[in-house]
Amino acid sequence: MQRLRLSVNVDHVATLRNARGGTFPDPVEAARLAIEAGADGITVHLREDRRHIRDADVLRLRAEVPTRLNFEMAATEEMVAFACGLRPEACCIVPEKRAELTTEGGLDVLRFAESLAPQVARLAAAGIEVAIFVEPDAAQIAACHLIGAAAVELHTGAYAEAGGAAREAHLARLRNGATAARSAGLSCHAGHGLTYGNVSPVAALPELSEVSIGHFLIAQSVFEGLPAAIARMRALLDAARGDTVPGDGVPGDAAEDAVP
């Protein structure tokens, strides 16, 4: 089974910086540490209101951190133009509501296919691998293929928030979504709400090529440091793929889901 890429979202390093102003902590330095600790790429979401990551952060990341950059974005003219100038290796088109604290669900590609298709084409023409953040629904995934996307990122939020039988049902939906993505010829990624305690079943899906994890790792770094948190997540991903066995002391689901 192929190695699962870990893309670390550093948005909330910028959230902490912006809480008091100034330049510390620096999300670009966090990105460097993440790559050194075993991450395979960096994700940033440049929002309309610039509530965390700012334009200058993204430009510095592109110039100073040699890695796979995944640019999360709404499908607006401003963001498409920015991405085409930036030319990250990948972008992920997400729904964006001005008042939301975090992305709340997958994009309705069936509804917005006509407006999305030309934006996807522009991004692809700039040499960018275009993914779309969707629910693990076969019809939505098929629509991503029809408008020219190269990948989907499956929304794992409902899975992450559920427990017991409900979590198993959501995992089955993710499994079916990953199968649908492969059948459509799309690369399959996943993200939202993943932690030490819930990531392994998702990481074990053989169709998956990348997970994007941000808030949990940045929050967990308060307790154990960013390099240690990323190394620990990297070990769990590798173990789920059968590459390694995580060391003693990696708590199980109940303990880790209580961590901020």
UniProtKB/TrEMBL annotation:
InterPro entries: Aldolase_TIM, PyrdxlP_synth_PdxJ, Pyridoxine-5'_phos_synth. GO terms for biological process: pyridoxine biosynthetic process. It catalyses: 3-amino-2-oxopropyl phosphate + 1-deoxy-D-xylulose 5-phosphate = pyridoxine 5'-phosphate + phosphate + 2 H2O + H(+). 1-deoxy-D-xylulose 5-phosphate binds at residues 11-12, 47, 52, 102. 3-amino-2-oxopropyl phosphate binds at residues 9, 20, 193, 214-215. Keywords: Cytoplasm, Pyridoxine biosynthesis, Transferase. Pathway: Cofactor biosynthesis; pyridoxine 5'-phosphate biosynthesis; pyridoxine 5'-phosphate from D-erythrose 4-phosphate: step 5/5. The record marks 153 as: Transition state stabilizer. GO terms for molecular function: pyridoxine 5'-phosphate synthase activity. Catalyzes the complicated ring closure reaction between the two acyclic compounds 1-deoxy-D-xylulose-5-phosphate (DXP) and 3-amino-2-oxopropyl phosphate (1-amino-acetone-3-phosphate or AAP) to form pyridoxine 5'-phosphate (PNP) and inorganic phosphate. Belongs to the PNP synthase family. This is Pyridoxine 5'-phosphate synthase.
